[in-house]
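Recall from the previous chapter that SMILES is a line notation for molecules. Here it describes S-adenosylmethionine.
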Amino acid sequence: MIELNKIYNEDCLEGMKKIPDGSVDCVVTSPPYDNLRKYGGMESFSFDKFKDIAQQIFRILAEGGVCVWIVGDATINGSETGTSFRQVLHFMECGFLLYDTMIYQKRNPIPQNHNRYEQCFEYMFVLSKGRPKTFNPIKVETLNKGKIMNWGGRKTKLDDNQCRRHRDSFLIKTKYSKIHTNIFCYTIGGGNTGHPAVFPLQLATDHILSWSNEGDTVLDPFMGSGTTAIACIKEKRNFIGFELNKEYYDKACKRIKMELAQPTLF
Ligand SMILES: C[S@@+](CC[C@H](N)C(=O)[O-])C[C@H]1O[C@@H](n2cnc3c(N)ncnc32)[C@H](O)[C@@H]1O
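With both inputs in hand, we obtain:
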């Protein structure tokens, strides 16, 4: 029996088999990519294993639930592998909608010694089981917030509170905010988690806020250093996580314990 607000030192495929159908609202995760890292010498992450995991994720998600799958590809013999694309096409065969292909841009990518442009992003595939039941978009300020702009040649008057275009006017009052683009940019590194491939806490937070509500259940099958769980605690979501490597699991548990010990303001 899997309990909420716990992480398990277990293979996620076995762990997910114990989660009832349709009981998870959102998955935010980053699997091992193309075996780029060994994570303590564990077995390779084969495509067959991926397929079984994809099927389990589809089964345990509620109708309208969303899985955010954050991945990149290795370059082997001069070519990117395309594994991310193979994975996402398989997710669609499982029944997911590819709701959005988002980009996780790294503000400060580590310079590499290679003959190509610096790699500065990963994919964030937003896969939904039917249309997403929750979307709380992150908003940003518009450049010209509230300014009245002339989008044509004719000058006509516009009332102060009028935001939409007048039928016979070219004057438009610009909105104060708009929905964020589907490229999210973060500074990487800086944490002291002891894990080699941590994603930014803000990235986990942004997706959890976007695709779930307070009290919902969020799963990270590849919990690593516990980032998704920390974001869930801060944003009042329930979490479940699996991490196969005992050393990372222990560190994640410690991080979660420290977060829970923090006094809350409200
Ligand atoms: C890319 S890292 C995730 C990092 C995480 N997002 C964070 O911020 O710390 C992938 C993790 O998956 C773990 N892992 C690999 N195969 C697994 C499996 N079958 N079940 C559970 N965890 C696994 C690895 O040990 C590694 O810590």
